[in-house]
């Protein structure tokens, strides 16, 4: 025998024939041939490439390859929803050089079914409202607006230097712009283009161009890896906080002097909205904080700040009304017990919680049983209050002169600034519609996009205008007032909400809204806003704990969904 020779060795051709035999045996029985199979010439099966993978192995006729099956676009249906097709194209960032895959929905598909594609929160949208000439005030901060219309947005493109400067001047001087109901040539309207620039302006502090300072809640991923020289420098942190305190105090003074309508304080844990007297149906300065925790509320109580939890109280009131009969019976029982023990001496309350465990000493097991400490007992008593932490129901309302105490509390609060992490040492973000000391003028980013969407057998033009940035309530209303004449009273918008601020639409003064409206709207200062915008913001909020997600105008009338 030849050394190293294996009798079981086979040449490659023989090995390949053996593999083909095994493959044929493992294949399922073929389907019966069609009737016309006898008339077709018999063709031998294609030989498999031995160097190919299993994915590109020869398959039966009519069975597409896996990659081809995945890449094959679905057949378009007739009567496609033009608006949804365009939104899908826009969000996928379709470019002319490299078209992307897209599906075309049926006619029954609504634009609001796109919440998943638009990266909106998974919320149950309410039924659309009845058409009205004005939509309710939305006190939440929008991170992005997407306007769509069949009319082009060329008037919002490539503003001239003079138009941009005029828009800034109109904003600083609080110039009121009144446009006609319809503009025939929006692109040639200098007044419209200047007003558009004016509506994009907002004021920010601090200003760090290399960092995105809004939103601050959940922004660690966007800040991590960026240059933060103050994170390890305590002296620099003190300088930043001192400068921030001056800007914060300046904003509050403007608010109290009725020169600023509202402003936001955005921390890494919660957001505070200060509103001037006369707005949101209140005749005094108000501040709403959301979300809050038991620790924050306890610290506010220790500083003497009087506040309320409107949503918690509303929930308690609702439960009391539902069980009114049971409550009356319980009250009657309590009164009977009080009458029966009227002559008895009531034991004085003890401050020592350990006395309640004196029965353990009587049994002689006081050392064997672990007694809860004072903190655990306190947490058990505050169980219901802790359950609302970090939720919408934890919204805290501060009114009147207590807002000044809240100002001092926030300036001196050490937990206002993160101690560790990417946001360590970074002061909270201040957002305002008007100028203030230390504030920096910023503008929202706007761009118009033109695309074509397939409708049946033809393509139609769809135009959109995208606004990105912290869109404040007055900016949303100002933009819609400009789109109304420019787009001839027909447009729609998808609104992206910063979720922690959606609860700011809760009506906090529902006790006597009619009285508030009469007393508040009288001699209301302009606050540097358009009269129509001021009238909208002065109304009592009606959206509850939600915000507007979809806004549409048809024939100069609004409908919306929240």
TrEMBL record:
Q: Does the keyword Ribonucleoprotein apply?
A: no
Keyword Transmembrane helix part of the UniProt annotation: no
Q: Which GO terms describe its biological process?
A: nuclear DNA replication
Q: Which UniProt keywords apply?
A: Developmental protein, Nucleus
Task: Write down the InterPro entries for this protein, in alphabetical order.
Answer: Donson (IPR024861)
Q: Which GO terms describe its cellular component?
A: nucleus
Give the region (Disordered) as residue ranges.
Answer: 1-75
Subcellular localization(s) per the UniProt record: Nucleus
Residue ranges that the Swiss-Prot or TrEMBL entry lists as coiled coil? none
Query: Where is it chiefly localized?
Result: nucleus
Q: Which PANTHER family match?
A: DOWNSTREAM NEIGHBOR OF SON, PROTEIN DOWNSTREAM NEIGHBOR OF SON
Q: Hey, which family's this protein in?
A: Belongs to the DONSON family.
Q: Name it.
A: DONS protein
Q: Which organism is it from?
A: Halcyon senegalensis
Organism lineage: Eukaryota, Metazoa, Chordata, Craniata, Vertebrata
